[in-house]
Amino acid sequence: MGEFDFQAGDRVRIYTKAATYEGIVMPRPETGGKEHVTIKLDSGYNIGVLLGAVEKVEKLAAKSEKRQAKSELKFEKGKPEISIVTTGGTITSKVDYKTGGAYPLTKPEELLEAVPELAKVVSVKNIQKPFSIFSEDMTPENWGEIAEAVAKELNSSGVHGVIVTHGTDTLHYTAAALSFMLKGLHKPVALVGAQRSVDRGSFDGNMNLVCAAHYCLSDIAEVAIVMHGKSDDDYCIASRGTKVRKMHTSRRDTFRPINDLPLAKIFPDGNLVVTNTNHKKRTLGKVEADTKFENKTALIYYYPGLSPDILDYYVKQKYKGVIIAGTGFGHVLTQKENKKMEWLSHIKDAVGSGMFVGMASQAIYGTTDPLVYSSARNLQDAGVVYLKDMLAETAYVKLGCVLAHHKSPEEIKKQMLTNIAGEFNERIEPQSFLY
Amino acid sequence: MGEFDFQAGDRVRIYTKAATYEGIVMPRPETGGKEHVTIKLDSGYNIGVLLGAVEKVEKLAAKSEKRQAKSELKFEKGKPEISIVTTGGTITSKVDYKTGGAYPLTKPEELLEAVPELAKVVSVKNIQKPFSIFSEDMTPENWGEIAEAVAKELNSSGVHGVIVTHGTDTLHYTAAALSFMLKGLHKPVALVGAQRSVDRGSFDGNMNLVCAAHYCLSDIAEVAIVMHGKSDDDYCIASRGTKVRKMHTSRRDTFRPINDLPLAKIFPDGNLVVTNTNHKKRTLGKVEADTKFENKTALIYYYPGLSPDILDYYVKQKYKGVIIAGTGFGHVLTQKENKKMEWLSHIKDAVGSGMFVGMASQAIYGTTDPLVYSSARNLQDAGVVYLKDMLAETAYVKLGCVLAHHKSPEEIKKQMLTNIAGEFNERIEPQSFLY
Predict the structure, then answer these.
(1) What domains sit in chain A, N to C, each tagged with a CATH number?
(2) Residues 336 through 395 of chain A touching chain B, CB cutoff 8 Å
(3) pLDDT at B68
(4) ipTM of the complex as predicted
(5) Contact predicate A82/A150, CB 8 Å
(6) A169 a catalytic residue
(7) Spatial distance between the Cα atoms of A83 and A395, rounded to a whole number of angstroms
(8) I need a labelling partner for A44 at 20 to 30 A (CA). Which of A139, A224, B69, B348 fits?
(9) pLDDT tens-digit series, residues B218-231
(10) To which H or E segment does residue A21 belong?
(11) pTM more than 0.90
(12) Does B52 touch chain A (CB under 8 A)?
């Protein structure tokens, strides 16, 4: 590598003017990173060292010896047990030192190679791998498979909680789906992803996994996304599965609670600070996976110029319900004079045909309100159900679940307005805005 | 009102244990607020007083006398001139003291009744009122009308800048539209709304207007939304028209810059702090309104379970282009094995038929990137154009403008990737996340 004689997988000691590092050389990422070498320290953390700053390299062991040594790592028997459901994504990929490619882990012991510090917190009873795909390739059917696997593990004796590893793109959709599908949830479920791959110095999966393990041992019996709370490695936050959204394409602190405070701040040393006392507590019992989902459910994102024909299209396609992500308090164009673009008559027709029409806000933060302006009052009179402060994405997931179980418009409306999994927050703290 | 003998429009002095207030009684809002009275102080600011705390009320003048007095207010001749384009919305509504209803202002003098402190900053040369509608009722056609009116005023001699008053629901869409439609913009254009109505103690329109007036006198020749920077009355921020989004349904500091720092912090006393030096400067010249917009442009918000049939629908409807708000770095389901839900073949067909397909991210913050994951690489190979850090809403508006002027796919792609109005930011400051 560079002018020095070492390769990915070797155990080395690297000397720079500023410091000395000892650890395993990681393979180079596919894109970028040609000017530095990444070392996995024994603590499990990765560090990037500029090749230009390297003064000397001591090769302590070649890669084959290192793999031998690593595979002897074992979870300790005395630690509390959790289970893991892996679904693909960067987080539980292991790097093949020969090809540099990433492969999903399947055995508990392999997980320790990537995240040795996990053994200090928990013992892993079982790893389930229902499938392995990018999270952007997920469908509601996958949500059901994950829910089944999680329920099975949660009901397994001795298991304190379950970690689901998952790509980050649609992690919040899955979090909402599990929140609604896991009926009678009595233990913690932590969804975890990584924004940076395991071969990079900024890999976040290790700390996220450790914090997720701590969450699984907590008293909070809710589905939560557990990932970085800040861009540095200070702490993770656990955000309620129905009130969370991916807010940045690349930052490690991308998952932010919306209209809600995080359930907890979790430090890698195990210090768990409950930041939102309004949560369900761990109980005895049994969880049931209720995975039915109505695929004829849609989400429409409104914008000026969007023709109401799109609603007619969904009616024609026999959709059972739509969520509109309207503007502001929950609006679309309703001006009667604009016959070509007004939505009111189309909404009346849709509701008349038996379709459920729910309203969320594309402003993301804050709550919809049909009483402030006349346009929303007219929409409500036409049958639109205003979904308070529920996220549009959560509303879509919830509607798919509700429509699969109920046929009567009154019952559907009632269910959509019932707080099933913390999707409504009656008292939104001001500091939750842009938290 | 309550047990006291006064009504909306009266000039009163109200005594409470804590303080004494003198001003005009405002009409009660349509919803809520039955337990307090709102007084417009002579400073222009409103204050709400709990009726239960009122000890004594002195009626200084009945409502008819007050209106007489107010209408004598005049803009001072010596102040620098600006023009105003009013389009409806709460901000420039006056309250009729008889009916309590809100009506749009049409004369410069009437504006002074609501915002007397404006006269200390500027003189208003002209007020244009192309139409008066809720902003949720806006269409791209309206954007063109506003652009025409703004251009006319900007080209009028002596006018330093133009304020556009507008409802807040779609203010950011209009801001993006004006950014692209005002070719050769050489003076400041400030878009202003109000989140609270003029009859409420928390009315924000006055401070927003005053700060917008200061912005019009600045050296920044860009379209910006000028509204509260924080929830209190400390200062406003001017956010670039192509990099701003309504992020809260009700808060006064709802408009936040995205992937960009605000252009300036503006204090009501006129102190304008430039917070982003990367902006166009005021020049001599003439602006031209180029208002052509292709209505066959769509924005598709992706989510797990969204059938690619929606793309076929837009192709059949002969749409010229779509923006997809994909997940993460800009993804949709591309897994080949999922024949019913994979988007790749549909996108190939759409691009093959001559449709432009652009990719933005629903994560809002951060930048799309087709090179990190193979799914995006495949989408790019199929012809999807990745639109860097451009907001999905801005990309939709820009695409409508570009498609109205260009036919060749190469030229459309080139235009969409050219930084025309600050829609791309090459260097995103970390502190702009959740600013």
Answers:
(1) 11-67 (2.30.30.520), 74-289 (3.40.50.1170), 297-416 (3.40.50.40)
(2) 338, 341, 361, 363-369, 371-373, 375, 393
(3) 41
(4) 0.86
(5) no
(6) yes
(7) 29
(8) A224
(9) 999 999 999 999 99
(10) strand A20-25
(11) no
(12) no
